[in-house]
Design a protein that fits this description.
The model has no long low-confidence stretch (mean pLDDT 92). It is built from eight helices and eleven strands. By secondary structure, it is of the alpha/beta class. Strand 8 and strand 9 form a beta hairpin. The longest helix is centred in the first third of the chain and has 15 residues. The two termini are 31 Å apart. Helix 2 crosses helix 3 and helix 4 runs antiparallel to helix 5. It has an eight-stranded mixed beta sheet with strand order 1-2-4-3-5-6-10-11, sandwiched between helices. Strands 7-9-8 form a three-stranded antiparallel beta sheet.
């Protein structure tokens, strides 16, 4: 199977139709990849290209993203519910679970309730905040997702190339591998409903809704239930006094997170931004293959 052209599948969960992609032989060891908020499954293409071809890889478009259905609720429990139903559908056992950002939070929820589905987890800068962050409203100054700046993001493009040209020289996109940015743009738009050009596959209002719901599911009570080995890749820590909600480059991960899993290892990568798979897909692939890999 061509590593760059996966099979595309549709799966109807109890509340949303989701799309997922598949690479590699059916008898290979399984890897499940879950993307970050606002991204999509094909952002993993360069990671997959760096993996041994004998692995059997699945990457999911979460609801509201990519080719999956744009239907709420855009709550973090709902994402975990979709993935739980999908892994049951696929019959996953002893898979390597890999989640970036929101995908890492989702994967933690799912692994806590599906003990046999995964042999180990790789959480890439997961959005698991300090415990105190779940006690109040993080976006108390906003009346709703329509007030979040992300909801105003440019949503219409002539084509994916226009999107790429706009981002290629702008941070944080300029720090990404060029091929990853091409994948992000190429598969991150869909034909516009009015037939004129293309629109974001994850609309800005959907993305804003997800951000505003990110403290509604406190995952801390589940950490002790995840007894399999966990590796956490963590980017540069955000200054506690930095309240810029539009700066997505710093790590959202609680620095003490690894100590609260039964069997976890923290790998601090201060030279990288939150977009670790976009900057160094080969590094991510190395940690997928070797749980004891080192940062350099």
């Amino acid at each position: 199977m061509n590593r760059r052209q996966p099979l595309e599948h549709q799966f109807q969960t109890s509340s949303a139709r989701i799309t997922y992609f598949e690479w590699g032989p059916a008898d290979g060891a399984v890897v499940l990849l879950l993307h970050a908020t606002g991204f999509h499954a094909r952002c993993w293409d360069q990671v997959v290209a760096s993996l041994p071809p004998q692995l059997h890889v699945f990457a999911v478009d979460m609801r509201g993203h990519g080719r999956s259905e744009k239907i709420g609720p855009y709550q973090w429990d709902a994402f975990a519910g979709d993935i739980s139903e999908l892994i049951e559908h696929l019959g996953l056992v002893d898979a390597i679970g890999v989640g970036h950002s929101m995908g890492g939070h989702c994967l933690t929820q799912v692994a806590a309730s599906h003990a046999d589905a995964f042999s180990r987890l790789l959480l890439i800068d997961p959005v698991i905040l300090p415990p105190q962050a779940y006690s109040g409203a993080r976006y108390s100054g906003l009346a709703g997702p329509e007030d979040h700046p992300v909801s105003k993001r440019k949503g219409h493009w002539r084509d994916w190339q226009e999107m790429f040209d706009r981002f290629v020289d702008r941070k944080p996109f300029s720090l990404w591998q060029r091929e990853v940015l091409e994948d992000y743009c190429r598969y991150g738009v869909l034909p516009a409903a009015d037939g004129n050009g293309f629109e974001l596959a994850c609309p800005g209002l959907v993305e804003a809704s997800i951000y505003m719901n990110n403290t509604q599911t406190n995952v801390h009570g589940l950490l002790r239930e995840v007894r399999i080995p966990v590796v956490i890749l963590r980017a540069k820590t955000r200054d506690p006094d930095d309240h810029n909600i539009m700066d997505f480059s710093m790590s959202p991960t609680w620095p003490e997170l690894a100590a609260h899993f039964p069997n976890a290892r923290d790998v601090y990568l201060p030279h990288l931004t939150h977009f670790i798979p976009m900057q160094e897909p080969e590094l991510v692939a190395r940690f997928i293959v070797h749980s004891d890999a080192q940062a350099s």
